[in-house]
Amino acid sequence: MYEGGCLCGALRFSASAAPVATGYCHCTLCRRSTGAPVLAWASFPAAAFRYTKGRAAIYASSSRGHREFCSACGTQIAFRGSGHAETVDVNLGSVDDPSALRPRIHIYFEDRIPWFDTDDALPRHPRAEPKGA
Length: 133
Fold this sequence. Notes:
By secondary structure, the chain is mostly beta strands. The protein has one helix at about 30-35; strands at about 1-5, 10-15, 20-25, 40-45, 50-55, 55-60, 65-70, 75-80, 85-90, 105. Strand 8 (about 75-80) and strand 9 (about 85-90) form a beta hairpin.
């Protein structure tokens, strides 16, 4: 079980299954939505993710999907793809114990800020992770 929430505590969530992927996203939308040079995330099966306290506000950040956040403090919790998404991408900074979810890939690496890099040997995909990777 993975649990987490926002800065003010008004919004809490849980995920009852292991993530299907973890990584860093360097895309412009993730950087702007978090105000950070990179976003660390974990993709959980949508059926295993639920809010346990509060109701997430939703912002359609692109035609690809929307972001879910706390309307009181602004903490971004998740991203869901358009349509019937099979996964929920949760920001690792909102997880109570983010050390339990180690990133395994970089996506949208071609969009990274040139002065920012991580000291790891993880695969670096220019755009989204290739299907089946």
